[in-house]
# Entry
Amino acid sequence: MKSKIELLAPGGDIDSIKAAIVAGADAVYCGLDRFNARNRAMNISFEDLQGILRLAHKNDCQVFLTLNIIILEHEIPALIELLNKLVNTNIDGIIVQDLGLLYILSKYFKSLKIHASTQLTTHNEGQIQFLSKLSVGRVNLSRELNIHEIKALTTIATENNILTEVFVHGSYCISFSGICYISSVQSGNSGNRGRCSQPCRDKYITTTASKNYPLNLKDNSAFFDLKVLADAGVHSLKIEGRIKKFDYIYTVVNSWKKQIQRFYNKDKLNNDNSDLYKVFNRDFSNSFLKGDINKAMFIDNPRDNSIKHLSDVNNYSTSEELEQAHLKLYKEKEEFKTSVEDKIKQLNIEKAPLIISISGECGKALKVSVKTPDTSFDIFSELNLADKGTEALNRKMVLKRLKAINDTEYYIEKLELENIQTDVFIPFKELTSIKNRILFILNDSKEIIEPVKIPITKKPNKVKIKPTLSVLISSKKDLYLCNETSADIYFQFPNSFKNGCSEFVDLFIKNKKLIPWFPSVLIGEDYNAALDFLKQVRPKLIVSNNTGIAYEANKLGISWIAGPYLNIVNSYSLLCLKEKLNCSGSFISNEINKIQIKQINCPEDFKLYYSIYHPIVLMTSRQCLFHQVTGCEKNKIDDNCIQDCEKSSSITDLKKNTLYIEKSKANYHNIYNETNFLNTDIVTDMPDVFSNFFIDLRDIKTETKIETNKLEIINLFENLLNENHESKREIKQVIYPTTMSQYRKGI
# Structure
C-alpha cells in the first residue's frame, strides 16, 4: 500500500511556521538568514530553528531547511560550519540547488537527508539518475511538467529510491526555475541567490495585444487534481509562499489538509475553493499540470485578485454593492487573522529548559542529574573524583564544558552544584564524555557527530595556458565555418528534436568537426531523441547544459563539457562534475564577477571555459509569450507551435529597457537582454586560467549590431587570444552596443 501523500507548507517566518503546524501540515520548509532562495522572507535564526524542530516534531510535523542557492567560493567555510551544526540537530532534510553543496553533503555529511530544489530544473530521467548518484532522497520536479510527465518521472524516481514532490499551490514562474537571469542581469539580484526582484510581474509599455503585464501568470492551484497526483505516485504536495503571511499559510494549508483527509476517507472531494480566493491570489490555473498551456493562464494584473473574484462571482450591479462586499471581506479577513493569531500564540518555539544537578565527593563517581520538562535521567562519570588535578570543579568550568547543550533543542536553565564537595577534580575529557552522553539521550539516542574538516581546494600549479576559441552556431548555413577556422564549432540542438533526430544524426556524421551543444531543457520524447542521437553518433565530445544528458554521455564513455547554464560558481561544483560524472571541463557562470571567479580553484586535469561574447538569455519559458504581446491567433500551445512557430517581438518596461522575445523552430520561447554580453577584459585579467573562450554567433536579434561577417568576427577574437593589442578596440568597433555589467557586479 502506498504511503499517504504529504502536505508540505512554506514557512517564511516563525508565525507562518506555527500557522502551518496548527493547520495540519505534515512538513514545513524554511530558511535561515543565509543560504536560502527567499531572502525577502523574514527567515529564522539557528537558535530559532532548534525550538521550531522541537515544536514541529511534537506535532508530528517534519522540518526541511532550504539551502537552495548557488554558493560562492568565499562562503564555503561558513557553510561547512553550519553543516557541522546541522548534523547534530533533528532536521529532517536539506533542500539544495548548488552542485558543490550536493557533493559536500553526499561525501562528508551522509547523515543529512538531501532534497533537490526546483532550482535544479529536474524534468528528465537522466537528471533523476544523476541526483541518485549524489545521494538525493527527494526531488522537487519542474513546475512546467504535466501529469503524464510527472507520473513517468515518479516511476523512475521510485526505482532509484527517490521521492517526488510537486508544487500544487502558489505563484507560477513564467520561466523554468534555475535558468532565469532577468533579475540578475537587470539589477544584480540573482534568482539563483534568492534575490529575484520579480521583473516578470512589472508593468510594461502597453503591448500590441493591449496588455500591461505581459509576463504575469495566474497562480498555480491543483486543488481539484488531488486524485491524479496521488495516482501518479507523487509523495509530497508542496505549497509555494515563503514571503506570504501567517493567515495566508493557515488558509491554504487548512484547505488542502481537509481535501487530503476527504480523499483518504473516501469522501467526495471538495469542489468549492472559495476559501482560497479569500487570501492573496492572482486567480488560479492548473494548466501546466493538465498539459493545456493556454492564453487563459495569464492575468493582466499582478495584484491581489480577491475582490475582483468576489465581484465576478456575485455579479454586483452597483459600485455601492461592491464597496459593501469589499468592506465585508476586509472585516472577515481581519477577524480571521485575529483567530489564527490566537491559535498560534498557543504554540511556543522556546527551547526546552534543563535543570542540571551535579553531586559527588572525592574517591567516588561524579553524578550528573538532568531534568527535562518531560523526563529525568542520571549520568555517572567513569572515573572517580580526585583531590588534585588541573582545575577544580566550579560553575564556570562546568558551564564551559557543557555549553554545547545550549546549541540543541534544550538550554541549561539552572545548574546546581550545592551537593558537590569543594576542591575536587576530574579530567576535562571525562566532562566532555559526560556532555556527549547527555546529548546522546537528549537527541533521541543519536550519536554526536564530531565536526568534519573538508579538504580545502588548492590553486593548481601555475602552468602556461594558451587558450583556444570555440564558436556556437545553430544554422546549417554556418557549417562552412568548420572548414574556414581552427576554432571548435559547437552546434546547438533545439529543445525539441524528436521529429528531426535522424536529420541531426546525418548532419553530425557528415560534419565530423561539429561538437553537439545540448540545451538546458529536454523533456520526455525530446530527451529520448537526444539519447538516440548519442547512441547512434557516439561523438567524441559534447557540451551539455543538462545533467541528464551528461549522465547518459558518461555511461556511453563520451567526453563532455558542462555548459554555462549549469550555474557553476565554486570549486566543489567542479569536483562534483569531475568525480561524479567524469566531466572533462566546465564553463564558469557568467553571473559572477571578476573577484568571485578568481576565488575558484580548478581540479587537476580539468579545463575551465568562459563565454566572452553572447546574447544574454534572460529566461526560457514553456508558455507562449506572444499571447500577451502580439496577440497570437492560437489560444493554446500545441505540438505544431513548438516545431514550426518562428516569431520574434519585444516588450519595453517603464524604465525604457527593451526585452527581445524569440521563438525559433523546435525551441521554447526565450527572452533576451537588450544588448549582448561582451567581455574582452577577462582574457588579460586572468591569464593561464581558462583553456577556452567561447563566442555565440547564433542569429539572435537584439540591439547589438554586428558590422562584419562571422568569419571575420572569429578572426578578431582569435587575434585577441593571440595577444594582439588592437583586437579589443577592433572588436568593439564592429560589435556594439554591448554590456559586461555582470562581470563588474556579480551576485
